[in-house]
Design a protein that fits this description.
This protein is mostly beta strands. 6% of the residues lie in helices and 56% in strands.
Length: 602
């Protein structure tokens, strides 16, 4: 996969915001990245970046990397970056999961071989984190996350950082607490807002959330434990969802450092095509602020060759264009004369996205989680027509950031099948047979639907896809009751066939007593059928009689019969001789044959 981006650094759309006046930091940034999958578990990446400032020399970078999927052992990644001045950066990261806890470890070194003093400088960074949940099956599950970081500089100004976050949720609400410890002074003597007052600082934040229907409440407080113990700020917020797309929030905050309070009001409107947010704030000292934010992403839909918009960022997520159409010729591919299905709801199940198809039968699902597999399905209840169903169960895709997948989901007119099952006794009288199971079997010998007859023997199959089928009474019932019936061969077209009057009559099995020229006993019906095909290839149509099989009671196996002669051991000597003669003719062809006496039903 290839990606390319072009950015004007330091400028905003329509010049609404001026980020910097430094001409060395403003200019054109061009980036390109090539991702290549070597195997199912190894992927390589290479990239190039060029920044041309309005003032000063251009800066060019090259990068290479590798990602190895180690299965359950985790994910290992490595990267290298260098510019024309030999500024280098090496990175190595590892991710894994063990006993419902996620672990990550990152190491990076940045080197600058040139500075004003002519010394080689470097920065080493090491980061580790773990997160998971305890008591997940209890009423009070406890979520936690620990993160540690250490930075070492060539000038011996080192910093260290640790953060612990825990969250406890239940019917009473959700409580979270974050506590942070950091050690180390400012870099190069520069003082920033993030610089700790002393060499060591411990601070934290406590928050409580509770929902009351559409109203969400939040109480929060910030505090320090070292070098001083005090509450540095507190506040509360109320958020009300007027609909799934529109919500409002009012927030009150107090800051001890300035001894001032502040009130903020926000309105958020979220649509599939855009996200609009407005906010206004007033502070106790009389200052105020107001803002309006409109966010949307543009994408290209390749099926209809059109531009689409999304209210969610698309450059770091995937998308899929889905065409839903009536497959008239049953080839699974959209053809010119096939009608599109408008207003059908397409869902990305695991990504919790859904969209309706347009007049061309196309729906675009955006903001799919990167490198995550999701099922793309159509809600059959939204298809135009009561007999319309999808020709397959759906498609699974793995979303890739910045890429729009293409999927076609054919729709067909389904058929219906109905009839009545009768049970015939030994006298020949028939009556409706209730609660009999029937199986509908496709050309792959798979049972695709099952139903039972009603109290009056009536049965019904619905939503049958076009194609050839077999309809059979469930063999476990007929074997158990000693019954037999014929199977039905059916063929459904793409016109939504309704086939009625496919009735079954269950008869008691006939009894047979005689000598069987047997080709052997088999443990399964499949092995018997396989051997029969071998014999058929060898003998052609020169069988003495039409071959048959006997199913032995109590799952004892199957007998492949090549000839049958009625008679009993007392008066049927001639039948036995005929069976032996039949076997002799087969033995001359090097085919195993044995004569056995059987009492069986068929």
């Amino acid at each position: 996969m290839y990606r390319f981006s072009l950015v004007e650094v330091g400028e905003s759309v329509f010049g609404a915001t001026q980020f910097t006046e430094d001409l060395t930091q403003k200019g054109i940034l061009a980036s390109s990245i090539l991702d290549y999958g070597v195997t199912d578990w190894l992927a390589l990446t290479a990239g190039a970046t060029s920044f041309t400032p309005e003032l000063g020399e251009s800066q060019d970078f090259i990068s290479v990397g590798a990602n190895a999927n180690l299965g359950k052992a985790g994910l290992l990644s490595a990267s290298f970056l260098q510019n024309q001045d030999e500024l280098k950066s090496f990175g190595l990261s590892y991710r894994t999961r063990l006993f419902n806890t996620s672990y990550s470890l990152d190491a990076r070194r940045s080197e600058n071989p040139q500075n004003f003093a002519g010394d080689k400088r470097y920065i080493d960074q090491l980061n580790a984190s773990m997160s998971g949940q305890l008591f997940s099956h209890s009423k009070l599950p406890l979520g936690f996350q620990n993160a540690w970081s250490r930075t070492e500089n060539s000038d011996n100004t080192n910093t260290e950082y640790f953060q612990n976050s825990i969250g406890l949720g239940g019917r009473f609400g959700y409580i979270t607490n974050n506590i942070t410890w950091q050690k180390g002074g400012p870099k190069d003597g520069l003082l920033t807002l993030d610089t700790p007052i002393s060499d060591e600082e411990v601070s934290g934040a406590l928050q409580y959330r509770k929902n009351f229907g559409r109203l969400s409440t939040r109480l929060f407080s910030n505090y320090t434990l070292d070098p001083t113990k005090e509450i540095s700020g507190y506040g509360s917020a109320l958020n009300y969802s007027w609909s799934n797309n529109f919500n409002s929030e009012i927030k009150y905050s107090y800051f001890k450092l300035t001894d001032l309070y502040q009130v903020n009001l926000g309105l958020n409107w979220s649509k599939d095509a855009f996200y609009l947010s407005t906010n206004a704030g007033y502070s106790e000292d009389g200052s105020w602020s107001a803002g309006l934010t409109l966010r949307f992403s543009l994408g290209y839909e390749p099926m209809e060759r059109s531009i689409f918009t999304s209210g969610r960022p698309m450059s770091q997520s995937g998308a899929v264009a889905v065409r839903v159409f009536e497959d008239l010729n049953m080839n699974g591919t959209f053809d010119e004369n096939e009608p599109p299905m408008e207003n059908a709801t397409v869902q990305a199940v695991q990504a919790y996205r859904q969209e309706k198809t347009n007049a061309a039968g196309v729906a675009v699902l955006s903001s799919l989680y990167n490198n995550t597999t999701t099922d793309i399905v159509v809600d059959e209840a939204t298809l135009d027509g009561p007999f319309m169903i999808t020709a397959n169960k759906g498609v699974a895709i793995k979303a890739r950031k910045g890429f729009v997948d293409q999927v076609e989901i054919p729709v067909v007119k389904s058929g219906e099948l109905e009839g009545i099952i009768y049970l015939q006794d030994i006298s020949g009288k028939s009556a409706p047979a209730p609660y009999i199971m029937l199986n509908l079997i496709d050309k792959e010998s798979e049972v695709i639907a099952t139903t039972r007859s009603e109290f009056d023997g009536y049965y019904l199959f619905t939503k049958i896809k076009p194609g050839p089928y077999q309809l059979k009474v469930d063999e476990s019932y007929t074997d158990r009751r000693g019954l037999k019936t014929s199977e039905k061969q059916l063929d459904f077209s793409s016109n939504g066939d309704v086939i009625a009057g496919i009735d079954f009559i269950l008869h008691p099995l006939d009894e047979a007593h005689g000598y069987v020229a047997s080709a052997g006993k088999f443990e399964s019906a499949n092995m018997l059928k396989l051997y029969y095909q071998i014999l058929r290839n060898k003998l052609g149509n020169s069988f003495i009689q039409k071959p048959f099989y006997i199913k032995l009671p109590e799952k004892a196996g199957y007998i492949l019969g090549l000839a049958y002669f009625e008679g009993n051991p007392v008066t049927g000597k001639k039948s036995e001789v005929n069976a032996l003669n039949a076997c002799s003719s087969l033995n001359t062809s090097d085919i195993y044959c044995d004569v056995q006496y059987h009492d069986f039903k068929y």
